[in-house]
Amino acid sequence: MEEVNQTFDSEFFLLGFSEKPEQEMPLFGLFLGIYMITLVGNLLIMLTIIFDSHLHTPMYFFLSNLSFVDLCLASTTVPKMLKNVLIHSTAIPYADCLVQMCFFLVFTCMDNLLLTLMSYDRFVAICQPLHYVAIMNPQLCVLLVLFSWIVSFLIPLIHTVMAVQLSFCKDHDIPHFFCDLSQVLKLSCSDTSINNILVYFAASLLGVVPMAGIFFSYIKICASILRIPSRGGKYKVFSTCGSHLCVVSLFYGTLLSVYLSSSTTYSPWKNSIISAINNVFTPMLNPFIYSLRNKDIKDSLRRLINRLTSYH
After folding, report:
1. What would the pLDDT profile of 38-50 be if each residue is shown by its tens digit?
2. Phi and psi based region of residue 282 (left: phi greater than 0; alpha: psi -120 to 50; beta: remaining)
3. Which CATH architecture has domain 3-310?
4. Where are the domains of the chain?
5. 152 to each of 19, 107, 142, how far by Cα in Å?
6. Containing H/E element for 297?
7. Minimal CB count within 10 Å: which of 18, 27, 151, 170?
8. What is the pLDDT of residues 243-286, one digit of tens each?
């Protein structure tokens, strides 16, 4: 293929939903509704935790960060997709594509690391309850989240800087609804072997290590629960992990489905739908999972809504 120098004036074309134009407007309505629910749901969770002093604990501190990250993750891809569908355009400037790619990786990494921190919090709370306050002190929680943000920015930034060095062929068509790193690398006429090695290394590091941490935490949690004599006591303790387990299952389940779909011969339209489930539906469902399964959140949310409505 003919190689051309990339410039910040060139464009890529996101073809994810353009394969079936007749379904673009129904998808626009669907994703607009989901995006609005995502914004409102995650904002309510954040405001509830911020304004209710009863929720100023490590678990809810991590949850507020998760809601913020989910909101940002959806906002990285959905508004551009909605705009393109509305104006019947698939174009995205080169610079915007790289920025979108970078921030999508940042918030996905952060989502992953926060779920790991939340599993560690549950492990300490259940397996070492007498030392919970001393171990999960505010300073440690802030440092853990800060470290997660640094890692989540550093690795995507390296990917982005290396992508900037690439030259791209005349074919700028991306068979996706957002600028996915793997799809961008496929369009390059340059040697991407180093980029691909870095992708596999980062995926292994940010995939295997957090999953192993979550798995180890829940093995210890299950062992502690089994030692509780009463059945009611077991249920009460395990119920504190229910919301987190649901979110972890949803996150890794949809992420695995996206990975498997990318390795098959699905059409770009089907791949985009599967990816949208991970990038759009998951951030929307997380607030509902935590609010519906958590009495403290429901009570605090009710008080916040009453306080907001009382002003009117």
Report:
1. 999 899 889 888 8
2. alpha
3. Up-down Bundle (1.20)
4. 3-310
5. 33, 7, 15
6. helix 295-310
7. 170
8. 788 888 888 887 777 666 555 555 666 667 777 777 788 888 88
